[in-house]
Amino acid sequence: MKQESRNSDATIHDADYAAIFEGCKAVAESRLFTAGRRSEALDGDWNYAVDQYDTCLRAGWYKEEYSDAQGRPLPVDFSFDDWPVMHLPCCWNMAEPELKLYEGGMVFTRRFRFKSKTAEAGKERVFLRIGAANYVCRVFLNKEYVGMHRGGSTPFCFEVTDLLAEDNRILITCDNTRRDTQVPMRNTDWFNYGGIYRSIELFRLPAVFIRDFGISLRRGSLEHGRGMLDVSVELSDKTDAAAQLLIPRLGISQEIPVHGGKAEISMEAPEGLQLWTPEDPQLYGVTLRCGEDSVTDDVGFRTIEVSGTDILLNGKPVFLRGVSCHEDSERRGKALTTEDRTGIITIAKELGCNFMRLAHYPHSEEMSRLADRMGILLWEEVPVYWAIAFEDPDTLEDASNQLREMICRDRNRASVIIWSVGNENADTDARYRFMCTLADTARNSDPTRPVSAACLVNFPREVIDDRLADALDIIGVNEYCGWYIPDFSILPRILKNSRLTKPVIISEFGAGAKSGKHGNVQERWTEEYQAEVYRRQTETLGGIPYIKGMTPWILFDFRCPRRTSVLQNYYNLKGLVSADRRHRKMAFSVLQAFYRKLAGSPDPEETLHEKTDGSDACPADGAHENGLASGAH
Ligand code: GCB
User: Fold this and answer.
1) Average pLDDT for residues 241-251, to the nearest whole number?
2) N or C: which terminal CB in the chain sees fewer CB atoms within 10 Å?
3) At residue 633, does pLDDT exceed 90?
4) Is the pTM of this model over 0.90?
């Protein structure tokens, strides 16, 4: 038992100081449907202070106590308005040179004015939404604790109606300390950017509002005609109401009866519905009205399903010509601009892709909106990466919440076709249970999309036999034959030994190459070596009937603290394109030619030669006969 002491001081002695800030957790169920809603952004200049020792929480800075009960001035350790300024959203590592490698606690605060649009109490409800903050985030408004959120990549909301005044101070603590029980845990192969790096917004809503709204084309329904549209509605309160669904371009105006705050209806898709495909990404403006509330979204209609070893898009087999991608920019970290994201998809399309794997955590929702518009299929993933604390129930709850938050956020996006529940976890009993629970969670939250995960190969036995495959609809496989596994000849044997009855996506293969470094195909880190790995990989994988897609690692070089060799200079160099997005390495053309051939596009060789200028050229024919170098890198 803890011994009481007469002179203890909670601000310095209390080891459990954070316990009182664990309540009011924002979770997927407290989300808001925000599409088509107007918001008031709190983005902009915030005062900030590095708070390595969590003194803000320990000493209650948010209470702004400048004097004691008798009005005598107190010494204070903070000065909000005089603190330096940072423009949010951003990754703090990119904001100031001295924060480049900072991990830990940070306090952000600003003042803002807010004018209620109605004098009638209870008429207007106001919610704060933060697009993403890495990793533990706590919000205080006008000296009161509002709530907290765990997880670095998904949005979260709090109702702040009763705390708002005309003049407000908001204070947010954000802690990106890596911990073994978090998702991801301490060890990853990407940079742990800190900060509130997606928008901070206020939404004004009516007393009863639309919390969630889903609309999709039912899988399997195209076989029997025009397909069925499934619509679901969730209101903020358990009331009865009549909602109205409007899709003007399809002539739909449909009343939806809501009972106890929920509704689910199905209707036959109208004649003239044009299915969404990557080649023709048709989107329809969809509005849902209910009482005083209304939301609108741009939605594409398509089905995605698995049949035997096939992946069917709109009922037809599709090969997923993909590439993996991190959310990372040399200049902005994870806080990419619309232009950055559009540029990424444009380069993926130039590569011949119809598919991208957004690794290893939920990227901004803007990415899936752009993919909807630009026509690219997506794999979205939660950061259940490597050695998660699979035995820890709190870790499972955290992972499951991140998964639900991602699904709620993006389930109306036609581009998103796969939910991935993790990457490269060792096949233990605890991990099996943990991941099966996540697979079930994904299916319960969204029965319309297949579930996958990137599994490891059993190299000693030369077979893909991860037990998790049983729980997946599509098996993702990471293999680095030609790189971490120098002997390439093992790959055909693995593929032959693996008797897989589900579609497989080779979710990773690749090799490192320093942009502009040339040599022969046996010399690691040269573009020639990387191109040779791509040539051999595509030759081998292209001939395996159960392989229905691939997302080689990776589109761009990315920041990576584990990679300290002078050559890598804290970057992972497996990109097909340099980190500044300017230089396409030779392997880019190899994959591009392969994808063009698969897509039945004009002669890839010709295209290749058209583009060739010395540095982008492929090595001479027959180069691969030389084989790949062996030995560890
Ligand atoms: C992997 C991981 C990925 C790494 C990559 C590499 O298997 O899934 O996150 O970055 O290998 O480059 O080693």
Assistant:
1) 97
2) N
3) no
4) yes
- Residue 621 confidence (pLDDT): 28
Q: Are residues 380 and 360 in the same domain?
A: yes
Domain end residue (candidates: 190, 206, 222): 206
Across 530-536, average pLDDT: 98
1 assigned to some structural domain: no
> pLDDT per residue over 560-572, tens digit each?
999 999 999 999 9
Q: What is the DSSP letter of 1?
A: -
Q: Cβ(381) to ligand 1 under 6 A? A: no
Residue 389's identity, in one-letter code, is A
Q: Is there a single domain that holds both residue 99 and residue 233?
A: no
| Among candidate residues 206, 226, 248, the one where a domain is terminated | 206
Assess whether pLDDT exceeds 70 at residue 612.
no
Beta carbons of 359 and 382 less than 8 angstroms apart: no
Co-location of 370 and 497 in the same domain: yes
- Token pair for 284: 């329809």
612 belongs to a structural domain: yes
Residues 251 and 361: their CA atoms lie apart, in Å, by 38
Residue 527: alpha-carbon gap to chain centroid: 29
137 dihedral zone (left: phi>0; alpha: psi -120 to 50; beta)? beta
Q: Which residue has the tokens 């604790």?
A: 145
Phi, psi of 76 (to 5 degrees): -125, 150
Residue located nearest, by CA, to atom 10 of ligand 1: 189
On the question of pLDDT at 225 being above 90, the answer is no
* 75 plus 202 within the same structural domain: yes
Question: Which CATH number fits the domain that encloses residue 193?
Answer: 2.60.120.260
Indicate if ligand 1 lies below 6 Å from the C-beta of 423: yes
Do 245 and 142 belong to one domain?
no
User: Which CATH number does the domain housing residue 257 bear?
Assistant: 2.60.40.10
pLDDT tens digits, residue range 247-278? 999 999 999 999 999 999 999 999 999 999 99
pLDDT at position 119: 63
Q: Is position 370 within any domain?
A: yes
Please, which residues bridge with residue 130 across strands? Answer: 156, 200
CA of 150 to the centre of ligand 1 (A): 24
User: What CATH number does residue 438 fall under?
Assistant: 3.20.20.80
Six-digit token string for 289: 């009205």
When divided into structural domains, the chain yields a total of 3
Torsion of CA 358, 362, 367, 371, to 10 degrees: 50
Nearest atom of ligand 1 to the alpha carbon of 478: 7
Question: Which range marks the domain in which residue 17 is found?
Answer: 10-206
Q: How far is the CA of 324 from the centre of ligand 1 (A)?
A: 10
Considering the domain architecture, whether residues 224 and 357 belong to the same structural domain is answered as no
Query: Burial code of 235-258, b = ≥16 C-beta within 10 A, e = fewer?
Result: bbeeeebebebbbeebebeeebeb
- Assign 626 a pLDDT band (cuts: 50, 70, 90): very low
- pLDDT digits 0-9 by tens, 298-347: 999 999 999 999 999 999 999 999 999 999 999 999 999 999 999 999 99
Are 253 and 316 members of one domain?
no
Tokens describing residue 137: 């985030």
What pLDDT is recorded for position 14? 86
In a domain, 5, yes or no: no
Q: Are residues 188 and 222 in the same domain?
A: no
Residue whose CA is at the smallest distance from ligand 1 atom 7: 478
Strand order in the sheet with 144-150: 85-88, 44-50, 105-113, 167-175, 136-141, 144-150
Interval 408-443: pLDDT, tens = 999 999 999 999 999 999 999 999 999 999 999 999
